[in-house]
Amino acid sequence: MLSDGTARDRTIARARLKFLENAELPAAIVPEGIRNSWQRSKYLGIGTDEVVVPYQPDYDRESRLVRAATPVLDRLEQALAGSDACVIVTDRKGWVRDRRVGEKRLSAHLDRVHLAPGFNYAEEFVGTNGIGVALEERRPNVVLGTEHFNERLQNVSCAAAPIRNSVTGRVEGAMNLTCWNGPARTLMAALVQEAAGDIERVMYEFSSSHQRALLEAFQQVTHYGDRPVLCLGQDLVLANSAASARLTGDDHRLLHEAAAELGHAPRTRKQVRLTGGETALMRCRRIDSPAGAAGYLLELAFTDHPCDQARPGSRTRPRDGQEAARPRPLPGLAGTDPAWNAVSRTASRCARERTPLLLHGEAGTGKSALARAAHALTGAASAPVVVDAGTDDLTAALHAAPTGPGRALVLRNVDAVPPGQGPAAALALDTAAAQGTWIVGTLTRAQGVPDALRSCFTEASPVPALRHRLADVPALVDCLLRRIGAGVECAPEVLPLLRRHDWPGNIRQLESVLRKAAAGRRTYRIELGDLPPSLHSAGGRPLSAWEASERDTLVQALLEADGNKLLAAQRLGISRTTIYRKMRAYGITLPARH
After folding, report:
1. pTM higher than 0.85, yes or no?
2. I want to staple 441 with a disulfide (CB 3.0 to 4.6 A). Which of 57, 222, 414, 512 is the partner?
3. What are the pLDDT digits (tens) for 211-246?
C-alpha cells in the first residue's frame, strides 16, 4: 500500500503531465503557488528534462550577503554533517553564492543539475524550484519532489525563504534547504526560515556598523563647510542641503556607480554627468567599518558653480549656472526636482525659440501637459493641437492642424507612426515648423523615433518618472487637488504613504487615486481609509486575482481596527501570527497607532 506522501506525489505528477499536454489548470491538489509557478515556467518555455542555466564564476566572495551568511552556514554544515541535506545561499537574482552539503551522493547530484556556486537558479532559467519561487513571490515556500517543473529535480525536495534587509525591507537573497525526498521534508520550512532570520540579523549588525561609520565621516566633513557632500552606503544616503537641492535618486545611482568604478584608491576625482545634463566633479573616499567596506563619501563641485549666491544688496548678475538651478515653474504644474527643473527649462526655452522638441518618458509622466504649459508660458492664446500617431489618417490630421506663429502641434506616440506614413508625416511636421508652429513629439523611449522623423526634432529631453521625484509628491498632491476642484485636503498621515508608493502609472495614476479618494471621502479631507488597499502594500511582484483580493481584505480589516492586529485577526477569524505573516508577504505597511 502506498504511503500518503507517495500517493500525493503520483497525483501531482499526473496533474503536471496533464498540464504540460493540454495547458489545462492542474488538479486542486496542487498548491496554488506551485500552479502559478508552473504556468510562468511554461510561458517562459522552460525545459522539463534538462537543466540549462547561466554560469558566472567571477563574483564578489566578500559581499555583505556572503559574509553574513558564512557563520550561519558554518553552523548548519556541522549540524548537517553526514545527513542527506544541504544548505544554499543565493543573491537576489538567483545566483548561487555558497553551498554546504552533508553527503557526497547528494553533492554529486547537485553538481549534475548545476545547483552549485556560480550558477543561476532563478525561476526564469530552471522553472519551479524553491529558490526561484521564493525570489519570484518574495515569501517562504516549499517545493516537494514532483512539484518541480524540471524532471531532473524531482527526486529532491527543497524549502526556501527570502533574506531581507531589516532596514529597507528589500530582498537581498534566498536561503535554501535541499534534501532527498523523505518523511523529514515537512520540517524543512521552519529550519530554512530560522536560518534566513539568522542571516538577516547578522546583516543588520553589519548595517549598523556601516551606518555608524558613514554618519561619522559625513559629520566630520560637513562640520567644516557648506560644499555639497553626499554619503552613499548600500542602505543609507546622507546628503547636506547643498547636495540634496541638486541631486535626484537617479543621480545617487550614477554617483554610486562612478564611485565603485574608482576602486580602492583612498582619494580620487572624477567627472560625472548627471541626469539633468549638468556635470559634477566628484572627489571620492571609501569609508570602511569593522564589518568591511561601508560606502563612499563624495565631495562635489558643480562645474557651473550653482551654489554660489550673490551677496545681499549686490548688483552682481547671477551666474548662468545659478540661474539654471532655479526652479522654472510652469502654469498648472508643480515640482522642484532637479530633473524636472531641467526638462521644464528645456521646454520653456524651446517654446520661446520655436525649437522642435522631443519629450520622452514613461506613460503618465506629464509629457503632453508639459508641452501645453510651456506653450501657455509664451502668451499664446490657443492651446496646442494634439494628434495621436495611431490616428487612422495621420497625414491628413497633421495637415488639418492650424499652423503659424503662436501655434503648437503635439504628435503623441511618435514611435507608433506607421512606416509607410513616416515620410509624409515628416513633411507635414517640417511644413508646419516652417510656418512658425512649435512642434513637440512625445513617446516612451527616445530610441523609438522612426528614421523618417528623426530630423523633425532638434532637441530631446527626458521626463522623469514619478518614482524618481517622490520629494515632489506633496506639491503635486496640492496641485492635483486644486485641479480636481473638490475643496479637499489630505490628512497628514496620507502624504508619507503616497511618497512610499512606486507609482508605475506616474502622475496620471496619482491623479486617478486622488479623484476616487476625494469622491468617496467621509470627511472634509482624504484619510487613509479613503485610499485603495494597493497603496498600503509595497509588494514587488504582480498579484493574482485571489492574492489581490486577500490583500485588500486584510488591509480593510486593519484599517477598520485602527491598525490593531489582534482585533483585525479576530474579525477575520485567523491568528495574529497569520496577520503578521500576510503583512510581510504583501508588504503591507500602516502608520503606527497613536
Report:
1. no
2. 414
3. 788 888 888 887 666 788 988 887 678 888 888 778
